[in-house]
């Protein structure tokens, strides 16, 4: 039993469009992403997924949050973990306290997952925020403790989504991509150029990351529909 009380998510949060506008074109796109991910892993069980990008501002945190919601709405037990230990945003998106989180689980032996994870109003959705920003993010994520924690989480949840920093900025995304079943790459129209995307792919290939797909973000969906998708 998770001891955290259910948290109320404001309907005014524009980044959580799968909750605030579930019938919108963008929410439907997230359901399409969910389906595509499931088809891409048809022969292998997907338990852990990293969401990253080439550069900051691509909207990968917003994609992570909405994808987690969409997966949970399908009846799965889903955990979203903020592994951006430099510029965490998940606690802001869901309006959660951030005194305890991932860093607590990695540095305090007595910390318990079920006391740290926040149970969200969406049935089946849980969130672990970053916790206090540490001086050594890469080392913490590369630690044996992190690998053991992932195994513990896999025993509790159907799917764990890790929101990580951009690939080029720091090594954190590479570290996490090497530990999980799949990696989803978010590309922001008008920000990430081809060389940046190519370099990011090379860095992920270096750690044998299983890149299962890419999300092309902030794209106008139709001539008469001025929908742009804003994140982070």
Short description:
With 232 residues, the protein is of the alpha/beta class. It is built from 10 helices and 7 strands.
- Biggest β-sheet: strands ordered side by side in the sheet: 3-4-2-5-1-6-7
Q: What Rg do the Cα atoms give?
A: 17 Å
Spans of at least 5 consecutive residues whose pLDDT stays below 50 are: 3-14, 223-232
Let me know the largest β-sheet: 7 strands, mixed
What does this structure look like?
The protein is an alpha/beta fold and 232 residues long. The chain is 37% helix and 16% strand. The chain has ten helices and seven strands. The chain has a seven-stranded mixed beta sheet with strand order 3-4-2-5-1-6-7, with helices on both faces. β3 (118-119) and β4 (125-128) form a beta hairpin. α2 crosses α3. Mean pLDDT is 86; it is low at 3-14 and 223-232.
Write the layout of secondary structure elements.
Layout: H1 17-20, H2 25-40, E1 48-53, H3 60-72, E2 78-82, H4 90-93, H5 102-107, H6 113-116, E3 118-119, E4 125-128, H7 137-142, H8 144-156, E5 159-163, H9 172-177, E6 182-188, H10 194-206, E7 211-217
Parallel strand pairs: 1-5, 1-6, 2-4, 2-5, 6-7
Antiparallel strand pairs: 3-4
Helix pairs in contact: 2-3
